[in-house]
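Dear support,

I submitted the protein below through the web form. The confirmation email said the job was done, but the results page showed an empty box. After a refresh the structure appeared. I'm attaching both so you can tell me whether what I see now is the final result or a partial one.
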Amino acid sequence: MGLLADYKPSNKLRFDWGYGLELVGNIGQGSQQLLLPQAYLKGRWHQLELYAGRRKAIVGLVDTLLTSGSYSLSGNAMPLPTIQLGTHGFVAVPFTKHILSIYATYGHAWFETVNRKVEHTLLHQATLYARIGKPSWPVRFIGGINHQVIWGGYSPYLGNSLSNNGHLPSSFKAYLYAVTALPYSNASIDGNVTSFDETNRIGNHLGSLDIGAEFSLGNCTFLLYRQNPYDTGAIWYLTTIADGLNGLSIRRQKRGSSLFSIDRGLIEFLYTANQGGGQFIIDDPAQRGKVNYFNNSQYVDGWTTRAHTIGTPFLTPEGDVRPHLPYGPIINNRVTLWHIGLSGRFGSTVNWLLKFSESRNKGTYDTPFATPLDQFSALLQITAPLQLPLLGELLLTSRVATDQGAFLPRSTGLYISLQKGLQSTGLSLSSAHPKDTIKKYR
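What the results page shows now:
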């Protein structure tokens, strides 16, 4: 069930507000769950937006509808409780005649303590993107960076070389060092700073450097993009430049009028198997490898929440894979993936969406698989209006997804949702089987 109130479509309002509430029940084999994936309030003043609560989001330059998953934050996991201030989309920079626009956010979030070895951890999130080119121009260039830092917290599992009796730096000065990614911290910054923090930086830093171009040709709009992941700073020496998410999205500006139409398509290639090589020598930039994406020596839960990967779901936690494989927070981060997404319509009212993904998985440099494991994942979604007595017009959404291969357990799942529009709000009821949907497409 859910309630949703968005901003009013008029751009003349200086101030507006909205909210979202979503309650989901998952019914599976031997388990029932009641989840609250969204619960937030938001407000907008001109083009500045502030929100607080759980809110679904995708971070990074990507086709958000058809992607395999943005590197840093894909929407694969339950949103964290967050306070965020930012622009409402791209905003034109004054005196540039709309040639230069920026999109920026700054946020703070709290990790939940459910099934985590490091408790009371905090998250800093920031993004800064620029777009060059007027909306009316045939070509527009986009580039930017997103920055996530896990910091603070306590864990009885960490030794004294990684923590101060389990405590990690959590003072305001430590926060400033985490936000700015400053090196050379010491005990004067925070009494819980260890030799590990002094050698590295306070917190676990990760994100992506993104570049892309959007251009129009005939009836189609093309989006070409690349996300360059970073985790340890090796990206600045270009030792991990081979890794990244590459995508080409094509979208019809005017949707097809035939009985069956394809209105949008995407092809993506994700590669994270290089990581600068299998050696890490801090004094040799050419051998600053073994990046070990989404894993960290201090924050041993990895880039996960509730056992789900926060970033691209194809970098996989141990709970998703076959039981005979190695253990670890993210046990597979050396991946080669091809992904195709398509969407369109049947007639004038039925929308469809299709995703195919084929991946080769090598584990990690520390715990490699004996042989690379191939995996195929697919999802089909159909959305159509439905008329029922008493309830009137509803929106029916059904999804079927499957995982087949040597890496994940073989499984097939079904999701069904009914939505009823109530003026500016919406009401939905849904159930899922056997889990949310299938692993890759939660």
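Response: this is the final, complete result; the empty box was a page-load delay. The domain at 2-7+25-152+203-441 is CATH 2.40.160.130 (Porin).
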